[in-house]
Structure prediction request, 722 residues.
Amino acid sequence: MDVARLAGVSQKTVSRVFNDEPYVSADVRRRVLDAAEELGYRRNNAARALASGRTRSIGVVTLGTALYGPASLIMGVERAARDTGYALRVVNTMEGDPAGVAGAVESLLDQGVDGIVISEPIDEGHEGDLSARVDMPVLVLGAPPILAPRALAAGTGADLMARTATEHLLELGHATVHHLAGPQRWYAARDRVEGWRAALTAHGRTVPPVVEGDWSAASGYAAGRELARDGEVTAVFAGNDDMAIGLIRALAEAGRRVPEDVSVVGFDDIPLAPYVTPPLTTMRQPFDAVAQEGLKRLVHAIENPQALPMPASDPPVDLVIRSSTAPPSTRMTPGRGRSAASRSSGGRHSPPRNGGSSHHG
Amino acid sequence: MDVARLAGVSQKTVSRVFNDEPYVSADVRRRVLDAAEELGYRRNNAARALASGRTRSIGVVTLGTALYGPASLIMGVERAARDTGYALRVVNTMEGDPAGVAGAVESLLDQGVDGIVISEPIDEGHEGDLSARVDMPVLVLGAPPILAPRALAAGTGADLMARTATEHLLELGHATVHHLAGPQRWYAARDRVEGWRAALTAHGRTVPPVVEGDWSAASGYAAGRELARDGEVTAVFAGNDDMAIGLIRALAEAGRRVPEDVSVVGFDDIPLAPYVTPPLTTMRQPFDAVAQEGLKRLVHAIENPQALPMPASDPPVDLVIRSSTAPPSTRMTPGRGRSAASRSSGGRHSPPRNGGSSHHG
DNA sequence: CTGAAAGCGCTAACAG
DNA sequence: CTGTTAGCGCTTTCAG
Prediction:
């Protein structure tokens, strides 16, 4: 190692300096740093990984989609990774990909990583294939910690959010609430169905059949055409905001006004939600917080193989009330059938605020 | 190497088998593969990288945002990477990050990569800092190929698209077109301003002052409140769809109907564009094609250091006409002042189609 | 077609 | 506080 020679020390000392190990005199440290600077030295990660058996990197499996939810989660993971000192290796699997999540994980294992993040996996029916082969910590975002002995989960709790959304509609006075769900292969979609069903059951309401979309506004639009035909439908909880927006458009075209005739609650709180017509009432998802906490726990598990995993904290439940929900029947009747959360004080058609009032539960 | 022992061959032969090198008898190849299978052997990438000096990975610098455009581009890159055999190492830089793109690149250099992709960089004023230090191929997406001797660019051409959008409005009969631009630190935003200005100048129209937003619907909304006050404004070209949607909302609240009083063209063609009110006329961006072609050229540059870089092809210019644009003045007058592109045949308020008619130029 | 030998640049374990 | 000695698991080079 040339830096060592230039600084007149041993290779090991250089190593110590670069790893911030103790027991290096200030003087030697300076000399080493200067020499490195002069030579434009940069330490070789491959060699480090080879010698130490650790790559200091985390593999990320993403679904190849620009959907707001998954994309936000990934961005959150990338942001959070910067603070952990781990590099990210990203591989991507798509719906319908024959290799699926298992193939993606396999390729991360080939690349060499110290831990794995799987974001919003879908149920492919053969997750078990991997369980035995993955002995490193695995963080599953937005799904149960299937797979692998050292699995962690974060970003669950969609069921509770779905329940809150449904109850908001119930408290407004709707007899029951229909659900426009995401594709049932997604765990995230299933959780929402469960929460919705739980709310209805708990309040003794009839549980209408689930309508299934594919997260897209187009599928929401198609579902909206169906639902518009049924005069009984006065409240719909949609599995995400995009579907809610397509749904609202279809309802409007069918002559059913939102929220006067039908109330709609979305899920995610996309940045556009306050600006569509009408501004959308929706459940805000704490993507950043979920990613950050999840990564913290993953890194802990990587660095403390023996220790117990850190406990997950419950994510906040945040209902943002805007203008797509109202009591049933034509007229808006202030003060009746309202939830504990206060509505935004401006009129229904006042300029959208970024937030809308929210209800932390 | 245990596989070698089990198969009764030398280490080198195993290496040959796994690298698909010629000169291995079918028999030996079989034995090696079987032995590897039995031992669950998986080749160590760190060792490979160390010995060969190549990491077979590409570094990606992203802006930490879930904005549709940048997110789609990244997804496109990830998808394209799967076919190249290169792994992806992603680091993320945020607006306002003091280290900026330079810091992100630096960290990729530390990690060791064979090439770099920088997606939609913003002008930070000190890009030059890196030029000298980066001797590997760099692909810049959505910006000029600044930085580094071996830089490539892809996904440019926004100026031409902006020009087409502006001309669509001019051909509809509008006297001039206002522009709601993205933040001018983004090269992508600047290109659109240029194209817009070029179109106006070429047609001898007055060039109104640029209104600058930050890509968000909120900023579009704010700009819309301003523009609504000016009765001269009959056509606006927005730098992206989110701003266009915020803008339309503000106009509507100010009593200016879209498209009857004001026409609006967006940029990106987000999946929601057909479902907002009114369905948005917009320029579709070919994110996937750009990412794929860019990556192909980058890999070519990595693997053929001496060869000339592959030439970039021009991306298609694709105007999707929906219902947010119309001739000026109240009534819609079919057949007058129209562009060569045919309008979608259904009425203005017919169910949104996924596409809308488009105009390839 | 196959093998032996020599590192790649670092860290780990142990001496000083 | 600092140095020595061995590898980590591959690819490369040169001989068979």
Q: What stands out?
A: Residues 331-351 of chain B have pLDDT under 50 and may be disordered. The longest strand of chain B covers residues 57-63.
